[in-house]
Specification:
Length: 164
């Protein structure tokens, strides 16, 4: 059996996330059948369930933040948004599985499982870490005082997310 590359894994996980976002009420059997027909293989059920839970959390977060109105953005900021989503997806793939489930992207709220700060270890190339650092700075400038960088090198970073 051939080993699945990181790019293939990311593509497969993105496919499932998009499937769950587009069809939140899809049955597990139908989702697994769609995955098998597209990629010709099966997926670990633990990963499958994590991706489904992540898509559900995103839908809940989007539903709770939908009433908030935003100011119109300049064209340059609007052009940066697709790059932000792409980089966030790459950072999510670079993070370890537990971190991806708890707080894969800095803009995503962490699960409120318990009290205290949550540490997120991110192992990624330097350019991704630089991008993540700029995102954290933008979040802090926007008033998100519960996200900060604890430790960082040119290869990894530890983010701390304090629960509100």
């Amino acid at each position: 059996m051939a080993r699945t590359s990181q790019e293939q894994t990311q593509e497969r996980q993105t496919f499932l996330l998009n499937l769950f976002r587009q069809q939140p009420d899809i049955s597990s059997k139908d989702a697994l059948d769609a995955f098998k027909s597209k990629f010709g293989s099966t997926i670990n059920m633990k990963t499958f369930n994590q991706l489904r839970a992540e898509a559900e959390e995103e839908a809940e977060a989007a539903a709770s933040s939908a009433p908030v109105a935003e100011e119109p953005e300049a064209e340059t900021e609007a052009a940066v948004e697709p790059a932000v989503e792409n980089a966030a997806t790459q950072l999510q793939a670079a993070a370890n599985p537990e971190a991806a489930n708890n707080a894969a992207a800095p803009a995503k709220k962490p699960k409120a499982k318990g009290n205290g700060p949550k540490n997120v270890f991110v192992d990624a190339p330097k350019e991704h870490l630089t991008f993540l650092e700029s995102i954290v700075q933008q979040l802090q400038e926007a008033g998100a005082a519960n996200v900060r960088i604890d430790h960082a090198t040119d290869r990894w970073m530890v983010l701390v997310v304090d629960s509100k």
